[in-house]
Amino acid sequence: MKNLLFLLLFVFKALAGEDLCKQPSPEDMAKAAGVKLPPSPWHVANVWWDFEKPVEHFTSLEVDIMIDRDVPSDYNLYISPCGIAKINGLQFYGGIQTNINGWATKESRERVHRGKGGIFSRWSGDKTTPIGLDHVRTAAADCIVESAGYEGEFASVRRPFAWTKGTYTWCISKGATEGDSTWFTCKIRGAKGATHEVGSLRFEGSDFTFWEKHSAFVEVYSTSKIPKSGIPKVNVTFGWPRLNGQKVALKKAHAYYPDKGGPDSPDCAWVKTEGENCVVEVGPIFKRNEAKRRHDLVLSMRNRSVSKISN
User: Fold this and answer.
1) CB burial of residue 161 (10 Å; 0-12, 13-18, 19+)
2) pTM for the full model?
3) Domain residue spans in the chain?
4) Closest CA relative to residue 264, chosen from 63, 70, 43, 46
5) Which residues, other chains included, contact 119 with Cβ-Cβ below 8 Å and sequence gap of 6+?
6) pLDDT tens digits, residue range 201-222?
7) Which residues lie below 8 Å from residue 79, measured CB to CB, with a gap of 6+?
8) Which of 1, 18, 158, 205 is most enclosed, with most CB atoms within 10 A?
9) Which residue did the predictor score with more confidence, 228 or 12?
């Protein structure tokens, strides 16, 4: 009965147009909890999957994400189903954001903000050698790009995508090899199958091995448009990673909430499991039991179904 009343209240607030993510300001919540806010960005939760072995001849990565409510664009929320990944030692990451920003064109250094969208980024091999925009291929005229060194030398492509609550699949897939490099394309697929291409990045090599682990995170970040973002109350679910169309056999999975060594965060999230999925529950700031700053996640694979995206 209580769950039904909560659901009816949730639906009523949604129909009334109320912000279902709204909480007190981070400053007020931190004061109430008796904690100090670290500098942003804040990784409120990190999820790690350790595979039984690396995946050779890598061609695709897919991770499902489920968002339980609409997150307005006056928050800076980054949902990253690919928090960090390596192929042949080359690192990349990506996901969806409430506020993508970057350079309007490859020729421009004008920073623009395009609202909700998808993002796909990679670092140079040593993270110190600059990597130019010749490593970036845009999918459409509304894409934005960037190549800079403030997080280690990286190149990135971003594209507007008006995501809401619901289920999506963040994907990258191997494309054409040109000379000594290969293009990988990022796409976001909706629950009904519609695919939105974000753009492509070039990686050195032709045959790739995906390392023996994977990560995801939920982050509250800052932009020049919104220097101080609130922390939205939201539940984000990450599915079991699929490589080359297959769910990857795991040794273990765990959650980690950074507070020393960054990106540090006020404690405001817990990661729980539902079958084969990891659910990040983001809410008020609290004081965490330090013994639970890192904890195992027990997952159960329901099946080994294959799901591929069209190139």
Assistant:
1) buried
2) 0.92
3) 26-296
4) 43
5) 94, 95, 96, 97, 100, 156, 157, 158, 198
6) 999 999 999 999 999 999 999 9
7) 65, 67, 95, 96, 97, 218, 236
8) 158
9) 228
